[in-house]
């Protein structure tokens, strides 16, 4: 009899232990699900932008697929996003902050992430056609293997402000349009067309055939304040560390330099690009 009682007690303990383990696993699974990015929320084709300004611009350009808002977010900016999403028929989902952290790859998302259709780069021919439909003398910016997304985003922001008609980047060994680039540009990526090409040297040669003057930067170049930036022009900004490639430098019509009196020998790529873009802007606007 005692043996049977022991067996029954042993079975009861096993059953309770099993129930505790099952409940524990369910709790852990439920906890994970609060931050899981499920297939019902996103697709493999989705890209993401985050931050208020970048999200507003992407929504207004009709690129939104689904808007994710932090579940405790309130205020005028949230209402603005909801209204634009409603106008564009973009579904809105309230989610925990952890989910936004995952979608933005731990970026500063400000409580908002937007799933968007992938960015559509132009070809050089498309960029030329688009630019020449707006102006007889386009102004292009060529980025020679810029790698830092913050630099790229800042350059796009200044390009939009200074009237650049298009940006050209290489397909390889350079940053493309990423969520960080989009956020840093504060939405300028939606307004400045970007072409992606295989070979920058060939691209420059094609632009010259289209009567473009092509300018690069070099410490031994002409003072940029003497630069004649009128007409159809393309300005090349070199890599953050290596500068412009030797092959590309040979194709330049003129090399420009920004004089400096301090101890450093170079400026940040986005700062140098900004100075040169506004020098061109002041001339082209008749200033």
UniProtKB/TrEMBL annotation:
One of its GO terms (cellular component) is cytosol. Residues 1-40 are annotated as: Disordered. Residues 48-122 form the RNA 2-O ribose methyltransferase substrate binding domain. InterPro entries: Alpha/beta_knot_MTases (IPR029028), Ribosomal_eL30-like_sf (IPR029064), rRNA_MeTrfase_TrmH (IPR004441), SpoU_MeTrfase (IPR001537), SpoU_subst-bd (IPR013123), tRNA_m1G_MTases_N (IPR029026). SMART domains: SpoU_sub_bind. It comes from the Bacteria. CDD domains: SpoU-like_RlmB (cd18103). It holds the Pfam family SpoU_methylase. GO terms for molecular function: RNA binding; RNA methyltransferase activity. Keywords: Methyltransferase, Transferase. GO terms for biological process: methylation; RNA processing. The keyword Transcription regulation does not apply. Residues 1-34 have a biased composition (Basic and acidic residues). Belongs to the class IV-like SAM-binding methyltransferase superfamily. RNA methyltransferase TrmH family. This is 23S rRNA (Guanosine(2251)-2'-O)-methyltransferase RlmB. It comes from Enterococcus mundtii. The lineage of its organism: Bacteria, Bacillati, Bacillota, Bacilli, Lactobacillales.
């Amino acid at each position: 009899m005692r043996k049977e009682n022991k067996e029954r007690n042993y079975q009861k303990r096993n059953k309770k232990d099993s129930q505790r383990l099952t409940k524990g696993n369910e709790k852990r699974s439920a906890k994970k699900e609060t931050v899981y990015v499920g297939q019902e929320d996103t697709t493999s084709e989705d890209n993401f932008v985050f931050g208020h300004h970048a999200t507003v611009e992407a929504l207004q350009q009709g690129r939104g697929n689904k808007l994710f808002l932090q579940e405790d977010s309130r205020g005028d900016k949230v209402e603005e996003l909801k209204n634009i999403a409603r106008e564009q028929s973009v579904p809105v989902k309230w989610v925990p902050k952890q989910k936004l952290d995952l979608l933005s790859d731990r970026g500063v998302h400000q409580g908002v992430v937007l799933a968007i259709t992938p960015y559509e780069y132009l070809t050089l021919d498309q960029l030329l056609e688009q630019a020449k439909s707006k102006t007889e003398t386009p102004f292009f910016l060529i980025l020679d293997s810029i790698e830092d997304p913050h630099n790229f985003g800042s350059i796009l922001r200044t390009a939009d402000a200074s009237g650049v008609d298009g940006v050209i980047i290489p397909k390889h060994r350079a940053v493309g349009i990423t969520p960080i680039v989009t956020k840093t540009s504060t939405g300028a990526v939606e307004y400045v067309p970007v072409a992606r090409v295989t070979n920058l040297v060939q691209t420059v040669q094609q632009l010259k055939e289209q009567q473009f003057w092509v300018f690069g930067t070099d410490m031994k170049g002409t003072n940029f304040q003497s630069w004649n930036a009128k007409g159809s022009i393309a300005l090349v900004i070199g890599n953050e560390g290596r500068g412009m490639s030797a092959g590309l430098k040979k194709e330049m019509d003129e090399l420009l330099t920004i004089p400096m009196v301090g101890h450093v020998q170079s400026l940040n790529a986005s700062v140098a690009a900004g100075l040169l873009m506004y020098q061109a802007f002041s001339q082209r606007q008749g200033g």
